[in-house]
Amino acid sequence: MNVNFSDGKWLNEPTRWHVDHTGLTLTTDEKTDFWRKTYYGFTRDSGHFLGFPTADSFTAKVRIRGEFRTLYDQAGMMVRIDENRWAKTGVEFTDGELFLSTVITDGKSDWSVSRPFDDLEDFYIRVTVAKGAMRIQASRYGKVWPLVRLAPFPLASAYEVGPTACTPERGDLTVNFSDFAIAPAITTDLHDLS
């Protein structure tokens, strides 16, 4: 079921954003981020997140488009219970290149990066949460969905899910999100790429 971006609730609403026929377009504010403690020692909860309520299990997908050029420029999807338990996954610029990045946080954040395909300035991300697990898949064109990560994720009676973007080192990154949908959790085999 496609979701109307106008129905979401902002955590750290960006100064500039709008919804039109192309989807949600936002421009990040200065020095925004989500991170908790690990390695760096700091906690940041200032990133932009447009949340939509879900049940205790779901699959959500979104298309992400942007020009990511500065260290830690990032955009994708967030799943959130509260400030201590959340995940963000999508594109991130690090070490001079674009990677698919995932941070899962349960009190402290972890971080993993991968490159399932080359063009990460226009792609889709899909997240499934069910039975204490998070399944993250990415797709270049929204048709074939290889697994990026399978990880434990805290059980909750409800979650919030939606687009997120951060620029820890700057501001003014413009990102477009479209084709956003939330549906019942998929139950296909992990090696089923549909």
From TrEMBL:
Signal peptide from the UniProt entry: none
InterPro entries for the chain: ConA-like_dom_sf, DUF1349, UCP022704
Organism superkingdom: Bacteria
SUPFAM superfamilies recorded: Concanavalin A-like lectins/glucanases
PANTHER family, sorted: REGULATION OF ENOLASE PROTEIN 1 (PTHR35332)
Protein name, per record: DUF1349 domain-containing protein
